[in-house]
Design goal:
- With 176 residues, the chain is mainly β.
- The chain has 2 helices and 12 strands, in the order ββββββαββββαββ.
- The strands form 3 sheets. A 4-stranded mixed sheet has the order 5-6-1-12. The protein has a 4-stranded mixed sheet with strand order 8-7-2-11, with helices on one face.
- The longest helix has 13 residues.
- It is globular and about 45 Å long.
- The protein starts with a strand and ends in a 6-residue tail after the last strand.
- About 9% of the residues have low confidence.
């Protein structure tokens, strides 16, 4: 089966992540954590925080794609993940989100973003994640009541990206 690295084509206007979608079955197979007062205790007592935290991209993780002629895998290098996370904010895309890649959502915003540099001591560990170096993690504020109901009902479990990437090359299956 083919394995294709996706890269950013910096010579085209359309490149990078345009939106983060909340989905039931994230392709990177990493669910997010819904942050609420009952789960996270802060020094200041406040109402429901309505924040989702999870991985957006995990470097070198094979992601199965269904092709017209044949199925194949895609992956993103650590360098591409970092560049995509930076470009996401440079292009002011932090308020762009969708539901299952189909319905544009309002009332959603990425409020925190980081790249895992030290997997052993990363903040994501406190939320039960074990992510490799180079993973892109975000916290997303949910002001949309309908979306928050879907989160509470466990209809959505993770993040998925929407964007434009170019194919770099095919790698032998054993490489990943």
């Amino acid at each position: 089966m083919k394995i294709i690295e996706l890269i950013l084509d910096e010579e085209t206007e359309y490149n990078g992540v345009d939106a983060i979608s909340i989905v039931e079955n994230p392709a990177i197979q990493s669910n997010f954590v819904a942050l609420k007062d009952e789960q996270i205790r802060l020094a200041e007592v406040s109402k429901d925080k309505r924040i989702l935290l999870g991985a957006v991209l995990i470097p070198n993780k094979p992601i199965l794609r269904k092709g017209e002629d044949e199925d194949y895998y895609i992956y993103f290098s650590e360098n591409t993940v970092r560049k995509a996370s930076e470009l996401f904010f440079i292009k002011s895309k932090q308020n762009n989100s969708t539901y299952e890649h189909q319905i544009e959502l309002n009332g959603m915003s990425v409020v925190e973003s980081w790249i895992v540099d030290d997997p052993t001591n990363d903040k994501s560990n406190a939320y039960g994640f074990d992510l490799p170096k180079g993973s892109w993690v975000v916290s997303m504020k949910v002001l949309n009541d309908d979306v928050w109901e879907r989160v509470k009902n466990e209809e959505v479990k993770g993040f998925s990206i929407e964007g434009f990437f170019a194919d770099k090359m095919e790698r032998p299956k054993e490489s990943i």
